[in-house]
Amino acid sequence: MSETKKIGNYRYRILALLMFATTINYFDRSIIGVMAPTLEKLFGWTNSDYANIMISFKIAYALGMLSMGGLIDRLGTKKGYTLSIAIWSFFGMLHALVRPGFSIIGFAAARFGLGFGEAGNFPAAIKTTAEWFPKKDRAFATGLFNAATSIGAIAAPFVVGWIVHENGKNWQIPFLITGALSAIWVFLWFRMYKKPEVHPKVTAEELAYIQEDSKVESEEKLPWKSVLDKRQTWAFGLAKITDAVWWFYLFWGAKFLSTTFDVNIKNIALPFFVIYILADGGSIFGGYLSGALMRKGWTINKARKITLLICALIILPVSFVAVTESKWLAIFLIGLAAAGHQAWSANIFTLVSDVFPKKATASVVGIGGMIGAVAGILADMALGSVLDQAGNSGYFWAFLIAGSCYLIILGLVHLLMPKMVPLDENLKPIKR
Q1: Cα 146-47-25 angle, rounded to 5 deg
Q2: How far, in Å, CA of 218 to CA of 383, rounded?
Q3: How far apart are CA 268 and CA 259, in angstroms?
Q4: 8 A C-beta contact, residue 368 and residue 357
Q5: Which of 173, 247, 312, 340 is most deeply packed, by most CB within 10 A?
Q6: Spatial CA neighbour of 13 closest among 196, 267, 135, 157
């Protein structure tokens, strides 16, 4: 604590804003998953109808990741992040205007806009982390703001259960809440954010600490396409395929628990709390672990990849969820896998800032996010169709793939990026 006080800690105020934004992001995103069983009954949706609404979100998310990442690199973090949250908040509130006569197309349109805006959150947050934290602290910082995804996901069932009736009455209100929260965030962001090198509240000692393992970069912008021919970009993209698993838990978890264990909108809060509090712990621990290994003298390459291997092994048991008859064992295994995924996510996000210069970070995160969204689209298409045709047996294959894919993907990431050699601001390998 004495070191933190000596050098200053304004970077943690910026990190708190990243956590706040990510909480809003996931609260907005999670609401429909929590209400899915109720909305299906209210509007008469099939599993395929629900899957198509989710696909609409992910198509926009994929497009948004490609465009928002590059846009944030061009506009800068302050303006780019504000634009992102303004878009997703507007379309989040737009859900409340959907009427039964056009519920599928209405929800699909609102989810499309929401997905496009929300695509900016992680590119902006990862870029901000790279600007405000040294490499040895970035995984931990990323783990902290990434843990806010679970805070949003935990808040959603409690708010929904408190406000929405089992027959669907008041379903519109949760979609409106994020508008007020977003307005507060934008006010704080504009008031508090500047780059650390020009921020009047950042001490010289804190700035030196932030920049101790980074080189000062020029203001010259990198063309978005310049990162496309780098194997490191596609290694990150491969790792982001696992986003499809996280979205499976987020958007289909309530439906699985409802159809398998009769969990409804009024008693889903506790299962979701258990799942996402475990996920929170995983996010923070995963970010801490790789940083702790680096402080022991491990290379970035070894510390990150051993941590990712541990994550993949923790996730494996979720493969058995669909064959257990115990509701709480199923919930615990999903929570353990969610913890492993969030630890994995904190570290793969950090791979980008470990290897790429800050000016390319949001673009690479955007490309990876696009790949993750496409994987989620394909997963939704397959799962919705299988569930309509084969019933709950389709969940067996979903959980089997969710548990086993991380080890396979880690092997492919290592093949593409065996040594994690960092690139300079011209995307050339830095000689050591």
Answers
A1: 20
A2: 47
A3: 12
A4: no
A5: 340
A6: 196
d(CA 55, CA 377): 5
Calculate ∠ Cα 404-408-414, nearest 5°: 145
Query: Which residues are CB-neighbours of 166 under 8 A, at least 6 positions away?
Result: 38, 264, 265, 266
219 DSSP 8-state letter = S
Q: DSSP 3-state assignment of 40? A: helix
Q: How many CB atoms lie within 10 A of CB 144?
A: 22
Measured over the CA atoms of residue 208, residue 298, residue 402 and residue 334, the dihedral's sign is: negative
Q: Is the dihedral of CA 392, 395, 397, 400 positive or negative?
A: negative
Tokens at 188, concatenated: 């704080």
Distance CA 321, CA 48 (A): 23
Q: Is residue 115 a contact partner of residue 61, using CB atoms and an 8 Å limit?
A: yes
- Given a cut of 70, whether residue 84 has pLDDT beyond it is yes
Quick one: what percent of the chain has pLDDT higher than 70? 96
Question: CA 142, CA 346: separation in Å to the nearest integer?
Answer: 5
Phi, psi of 260, rounded to the nearest 5 degrees? -95, -40
According to DSSP, residue 215 is labeled P
Residue 423 has what DSSP assignment?
B
pLDDT > 50? residue 3: no
Cα separation of 347 and 167, whole Å? 42
Q: At what angle do helices 358-390 and 327-355 cross, to 10 degrees?
A: 150
Measured CA to CA, the distance from residue 343 to residue 289 in angstroms comes to 9
